[in-house]
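To whoever is on call:

I kicked off a structure prediction for a single chain this morning and the downstream step that reads the tokens threw a length-mismatch warning. I double-checked the sequence; it's 86 residues and nothing unusual in it as far as I can see. Pasting both halves so you can look.
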Amino acid sequence: MSIKIGGQTVNLTVPFHRQDFIRDTENEIDKIFRDFRRKYPQKDERELLAMIVYRFASFYRDQLAAEAEALSIARRCEEGLNRLEC
């Protein structure tokens, strides 16, 4: 499967059932790229792509932190339930 990000072709090997997800991701990145290009006409494509990478990496790290917090809460709840069983 090939996608385009910032005018660059990226070849991916993806299971068929994930291809729609990949296309949605490609479209979201393209939407952000076009939006940034309009907002920051002085920036070149590499700078725009770096800004997009930062945005996605920041969101990813936020999600990792939220997942860790949710897991911690779930473990505390499980421990509390286990104490009730005794």
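Update from on-call: the warning came from a stale cache, not from the record. Cleared it. Sanity check on the structure: The first helix runs from residue 19 to 39.
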